[in-house]
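Open question from group meeting: does this chain pack into something compact, or does most of it stay loose? Before anyone orders reagents, we agreed to write out a predicted structure and look at it together. Recording both the input and the output here so the notebook holds the full record.
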Amino acid sequence: MGILCGATPATLSEVARQAAESNSFEIARQNLTRRGLDLDEKTVVRLTQGLGALSLRLREAQLQVATESQGKPGPLSGRRVVASVDGGRLRTRQPRTRGRRRTKTRYRGFDAPWREPKVLTVYVIDDKGRKERHVRSLHDATLGDADAVFALLVGYLRLLGAHEAAHLVLTGDGARWIWDRVEELVRLVGIPKERFTAIVDYYHAVEHLRDVTDLLSGWSAKRRRRFLVHYKRVLRRGDVEEVIAAIDEMCVGRHASALATERDYFTRNADRMRYRKFEEQGLPLGSGAVESAVRQVVNQRLKSNGMFWLEPRAEHMLHLRALLRAGRWDELIQATLAHHCSVGTTGPS
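Structure tokens returned:
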């Protein structure tokens, strides 16, 4: 009958979907009650986490097979593919095991450190660099570190046949954790280097130009604006060396160290900032797709005032929310049901 986590597939799907789509589990419970499913909040949480755990097991099994295989054709074969990664922010809840005694409420309290969930997205573009709307994007997210999200990205790209893509593009901001792993990504995916391009988001690069002007405290507002307008054009042409030379000349005085940091940003990313060349090839200059995914997956569901997450619950919700926002919910339910019924499990207790 397909019973998973003590519920029918239809009930499990509806409960978890409402939990992933609503702003809280309580709102999800209220929406379910109006739909005729009168459940308490604990049951909503239990079923949602149960589906999340099952889905993560399925993901692990699929990506392990994809990583260990020689690579098979997939829906991305022959396509122009863009992959992007970025980080968000949420707060986790960590119980205190030391410190003051319990209060009158018998609770010891908890710490709520910020964590950076990593989000990835994969989509297809046409010859002019525009996103192909009829091909569904792929989103996923994890609380793991940079190695974890790149392992996910490699697995998905191999699973979907990106090693046979006509062109594979990796976009992102200038974070070192992204670009330090590019060569390993290309090797593990198995795509020839001539069919791979790495691009630093143009609009993030412009923000660094603005940071340069903010450090020039002796300049008038008009002079800063003129500098910014001119070097935005220079950067858009891909003449990064001219930008570097201009900043290098200003690396004197009390802001020299900060200006040198900005210069180094452009120096180490120069080959990923040939924007005119990228435009001529019909490649995207920005990483707006993954920034949108961060907003939809993380900010709109897992980040708000007074919201704290236990790490396992956050991991489950990140995955479910990512699939929901990518329009892959029904695909998730069908694949999860097929996989776990075939291996004879009823899911987490």
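Observations to bring back to the group:
The mean pLDDT is 91.
The chain is about 50% helix and 10% strand.
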